[in-house]
Amino acid sequence: MKRISVILALSLLLLGTPAQFAADTLPTQLSDAEFWKMIEDFSERDGEFPYENFVSNEIRYQTVIPELKRRIQPGGVYLGVAPEQNFTYAAVLQPKISFIVDIRRQNMLEHLMYKALFEMSPTREDFVSNLFSRPRSADLAKSSGLEGMFSELERLRPNRALFDRTLKAIKDAVKAHQYPLSGNDLDRITHILDVFYQGGPQMDYRFASATPTQNVPSFVRLMTASDNTGTNWNFLATRAAYDRVRDMQQRNVIVPLVGDFAGRKTLRAIASYLKAHGAVVSVFYISNVEYYIQPDPAKWASWQQNLGSLPVDDNSTFIRWVSSTGISSLEPLKPH
After folding, report:
1. Alpha carbons within 13 A on the beta-carbon side of 307
2. Quick one: angle between helices 124-132 and 239-250, nearest 10?
3. Which pLDDT belongs to residue 324?
4. Exposure class string for 15-29: b at 16+ Cβ within 10 A, else e
5. Does residue 109 carry a pLDDT above 60?
6. Do the beta carbons of residue 268 and residue 309 sit within 8 Å?
7. Are 8 and 333 in contact (CB under 8 A)?
8. H or E element: which one contains 190?
9. Is residue 331 very low, low, confident or very high in pLDDT (cuts 50, 70, 90)?
C-alpha cells in the first residue's frame, strides 16, 4: 500500500503555555540516572503490534520537511514513534528534547542499541560499519557521498568477529550507563543487531527481503531518498546531520519510551513533564498509529484525551502517514 506523509496542524487550545521556546526550563542534557528514570517512570507495559518494524517503510517521509523547516523553530519538543526515521526529523528540527513512544518494548531497546552505536561511532562510516557488521575498509572511508558509501558497504561481507565486538561494546555501554536491563532485554538487543547483520543494507520493513520491491523500500532506499526538490535531509546524508543526532544521543535527550498512544500513562506523563518546564510540543510524528486505534471507541476516546493533555501553541504540528494516491496536503487538526 502506497503511503504519503501529510502534516496536520495541531490546533488544540493553548492550555496557558508560553509560545516562546526560549522561556522553557527544559534541561539541555540529562544524566544517565535521569534518562533511565524517565524511561522507567513514563513507560507502560510491553504491548503488541503485528510487525517488528526494524526499519521504516515510509519512503516519502521527507516530502514534508521543507514546510516543517518554515514553520518550526529549533529548540522545541519533538514526539515520535517507530525506529530510525525519527533521527532525520530530529536532525532537521533540532529539538531541545525528543521522546520516541512506541507500544513495543523492542522499539525502545532498538533505540538503546542505536544510542550505543552513535556514541561509539565518531563518523557516519563508523556507524554503518558497526550497524551492519561490515568492516570499515579504506574504500568505505574514501567513498564519495551517501550512495558511494552504501555501494561500498554492500560490497563488503558481514563479519562475525566485528558483530561480536560491536555487541560487546553495546552491552558494555549499557553497563557503563547503569541501565538495569534484564537478561531478556539483552537477548532482544542481540536479536535486533543480528537482524541487521543478516539483512544487510538491503533489509527492509519485513526484515530481509530476497527481492526488494517498490512498495517496501530497503534501508538503502530510505537513507538515499529525498524531498520533492531532490534534497536529502536524512540523518546520514551529511556529516553535520549525523553529528547533530550523535550530540543529542550523547546528551541523553532522545528518550525512547514504551507506551500506547491510547494508554493512560505515557503521553500524559510527557504532558505533565512539559507543563512543569513551561514547554510545548512543536512536532508530533504519529505515522499511521490512528489506523490501529480508531476501530476501538474506548481507545479512540482515550487517544483524544491524551492529545488534549499535551501543551501546544499555534505552530504545533502533527506529521501523519495516510493511505493516499500520493498527494501531499496540509490540514488543521484537533481531537475529534
Report:
1. 23
2. 70
3. 56
4. eebeeebeebebeee
5. yes
6. yes
7. yes
8. helix 183-199
9. very low
Please name the helix (run of DSSP H) or strand (run of DSSP E) that holds residue 187, with its range, or none. Answer: helix 183-199
Residue 214: the pLDDT is: 54
Cβ neighbours around 156 below 10 Å, total: 18
Give the pLDDT band of residue 136 (cuts 50, 70, 90).
confident
- How much is the mean pLDDT over the chain? 87
Determine the structural domain holding residue 281 and report its residue range: 3-333
Enter the pTM of the model.
Answer: 0.90
Total domain count for the chain? 1
Write down the pLDDT at residue 59: 87
* CB-based contact 217:59 (threshold 8 Å): yes
C-alpha 278/C-alpha 311 separation (Å) is 9
Mean pLDDT across the stretch 149-173?
95
What is the end-to-end Cα distance of the chain in Å, rounded?
Answer: 26
H helix or E strand, kind and range, residue 155: helix 145-155
C-alpha cell at 266: 505515557
How crowded is residue 8: how many other Cβ atoms within 10 Å of its Cβ? 18
163 sits in which H/E element: helix 160-177
Give residues with Cβ within 8 angstroms of 307, minimum separation 6. Answer: 10, 12, 267, 335
C-alpha 88/C-alpha 62 separation (Å) is: 8
